[in-house]
Design a protein that fits this description.
The complex is a heterodimer of chains A (185) and B (267).
Chain A (H helix, E strand, L loop, with lengths): L1 H30 L9 H12 L2 H18 L6 H19 L6 H30 L8 H28 L16
Helix pairs in contact in A: 1-3, 2-3, 2-4, 2-5, 2-6, 3-4, 4-5, 5-6
Chain B lengths: L5 H19 L4 H34 L3 H36 L9 E9 L8 E4 L12 E3 L5 E8 L4 E5 L6 E6 L6 E7 L3 E8 L9 E4 L11 E9 L6 E7 L9 E5 L3
Antiparallel strand pairs in B: 1-2, 1-12, 2-5, 3-4, 3-12, 4-5, 6-7, 6-9, 7-8, 8-11, 9-10, 10-11
The chains are: A mainly alpha (185), B alpha+beta (267).
């Protein structure tokens, strides 16, 4: 009984957190100076969720964030849903195969990969859905590449800030060293 | 591999495909409607807060001499007051002449107040804005969007049930049939340039246009009435070898500070 109550609480908390994240991304960031609209906060949050929890939880978040962004933006419906999920899968494989530790460098590499793959998947999925629905394609002019470059820089900066903030709050990212005195041969 | 189950991933992707299909078949409409209705005020509120932060930052860093700026505004107000008085007299005169000639009343259009809830996230950043009303409220592509003072700021390009996407006049996606407020009422086509200014093209070489002249819509487009001000000519490019001359227009409204706008509804 108590466990199911806790599960509901956790679900409501996660849904509210996803909603607030999308409102901040769509409302607040697009109004701020310095081109801060380029920061992809949901993507950065998703990578941190993947690293700190598990693939299943991160997938739920990817579906929730993708669905909400598809509702509140003018990309063809499904583009964000698919892009977030595919990016998550790629980042998960990279995390398992290549970046096995939780150092800052691993995070930065993962965020870089996520930003690049996300833009790529968004272009492909939006293009494919537009092909079916007959809508106009995505403009790949200079503005698009400038935006993509800015997004990468802002995402990396946000990742560094969140990494050190998390490091300050908990021990989960602090390296552990085995002391010689504790090791018995 | 830890945490990784091909079956789980397949289930997730199947669920995503199902959600997308349900959306396009309209089965998710009730849920989407509720989320959009509930979410729109929050997104608009967050956006207004973001704009306030941008304003504060701009004021702190612009280095403008406020006293000097205030004096300039005062002198502009005085000039404009005289101008308004003169125009009021002309309006009265025009009205009485129209009545005498039994002219049909000038068309009156309705305005719909909209909140600007967001700016585009794509590469066209800051050149398109999202409005918190959509097709369910009677909005459709092609309708002009004006600022509080009645200056043209853009045009709706796409609508959803409760949201609309509008391109700003400085966006390359936004084109208007326009006319210069000179003696000949020179006509041309305006298009946004680099998200900063507006370029007016297809002006015949024989026309005389000058810096400082007002540019407004010509009324040759469906749903866009004549007389909506786009901006002032800041530069004229006239090359003898070219067929047309072009003009650079500066918008009279700061497109970065917009929080509320109005859409001119069709009659």
């Amino acid at each position: 009984m108590n466990a199911s109550k806790n599960n509901y609480r956790l679900l409501i908390f996660n849904v509210l957190a996803a909603l607030i994240l999308v409102f901040i991304q769509q409302g607040l960031l697009t109004g701020l100076p310095f081109g801060l609209a380029s920061l992809n906060l949901p993507l950065v949050a998703l990578i941190f969720i993947l690293v700190f929890t598990d693939l299943k939880t991160a997938f739920y978040w990817a579906v929730g964030l993708g669905f909400l962004l598809d509702l509140f933006t003018f990309y063809p419906f499904g583009a964000h849903l698919l892009s977030f999920s595919l990016t998550l899968l790629v980042v998960f494989l990279l995390l398992e195969k290549f970046f096995t530790n939780r150092s800052l460098y691993s995070f930065l590499a993962l965020i870089t990969a996520a930003s690049v793959f996300y833009q790529l998947f968004l272009l492909i999925t939006a293009g494919l859905i537009n092909l079916f629905t007959g809508a106009a394609g995505v403009d790949l002019g200079i503005n698009f590449w400038l935006f993509a470059g800015r997004e990468l820089v802002f995402n990396l900066t946000a990742a560094i800030a969140i990494y050190y903030f998390q490091n300050f709050l908990s021990n989960r990212l602090k390296p552990v060293f085995l002391q010689k005195s504790n090791v018995n041969f | 591999m830890k945490n990784f189950s091909l079956r789980t991933v397949s289930y997730f992707f199947a669920a995503i495909i199902l959600i997308i299909l349900l959306h396009y078949f309209g089965a998710l409409s009730p849920v989407e409607r509720v989320l959009e209705r509930v979410g729109n005020p929050f997104v608009s509120g967050f956006h207004a807060f973001g704009i306030r932060i941008r304003d504060f930052y701009d004021r702190q860093t612009s280095g403008v001499d406020l006293e000097k700026e205030n004096q300039n505004f005062q002198s502009q107000i005085e000039q404009l007051t005289v101008e308004v008085a003169r125009l009021r007299t002309l309006e009265e005169e025009n009205k009485s002449l129209r009545e005498q000639l039994d002219f049909r009343n000038k068309e009156k259009r309705q305005l719909m107040l909209v909140n600007i809830s967001s700016r585009a996230l794509a590469g066209d950043a800051n050149q398109t804005v999202t409005l918190d009303r959509g097709s369910a409220d009677g909005l459709s592509a092609g309708l002009p969007v004006v600022s509080g003072a009645g200056l043209l700021i853009g045009k709706i390009v796409e609508t959803k049930k409760h949201l609309s996407l509008a391109c700003l006049v400085t966006s390359s996606r936004c084109q208007f049939a326009a006319t210069v407020e000179n003696q000949n009422k020179t006509i041309g086509l305006t298009k946004g340039e680099l998200g900063l200014t507006i370029k007016m093209d297809f002006i015949p070489q024989t026309e005389v246009i000058n810096q400082g002249e007002l540019v407004m819509t010509s009324g040759l487009e469906q749903n866009v009435p004549r007389g909506l001000v786009l901006g002032k000519i800041s530069q004229v490019q006239k090359l003898n070898k070219e067929l047309w001359q072009t003009a650079t227009i500066e918008p009279l409204v700061n497109l970065n500070d917009l929080v509320i706008a109005s859409v001119l509804l069709p009659q």
